[in-house]
Amino acid sequence: MEATEEKLLELYEKLHAAYGPQGWWPAETPFEVMVGAVLTQATAWRNVERAIERLKAAGALSPEGMVRLSEEELEQLIRPAGFFRQKARRLRALLRLIERHGGVEGLLALSTERLRAELLSVPGIGPETADSILLYAAGRPVFVVDTYTRRILHRLGLLRDEKASYEEMQELFERALPRDPELFGEYHALLVRLAKEHCRAKPRCAGCPLAPPCARSTESA
Known about the structure:
With 221 residues, the chain is mostly helical. 58% of the residues lie in helices and 0% in strands. The radius of gyration is 18 Å and the shape is globular.
């Protein structure tokens, strides 16, 4: 796997010039980021937004508000995000972790290594969710990768092995780029935007801001 800092920065600059700042993660508090990171698993963000709004309306978008909910009440409020029973259990486990550390601020004050380990200890929270919390809630320079990242890098020839591990892809960015949380967050959001608009499973290359075209462009012509 080879990619130079120059190539990755060039990719970022092209996407930023085409799409502008993404303002991601859209949340008012670190806890809202944490909840959103759990709810967005296996669903579209618009469904997460609906669930977040329902939690806000119920006064439950805080650890204190959410912990007062019964299991059934929490499930019904987050129902629009899908897999609501599983996600309710994950949110309750996250609440217990927050409580053990004296609140959100206490949890997010942990070292990056320990915070990541603590988050990964929560059932249902994997590397992508944990790193989203680290980056967007705690402001740590941890690059978030996902299936979109894998698809785009492979099609651009920056990822030779399409089956590369999460950690290998993450290291690709963290080794090559300045360790800047704002850059990491904006870059991740731009890759998501590209994947949704053009670099889909079946690519829509017309109008893609990347040039020269990638290897898949001729297949979608």
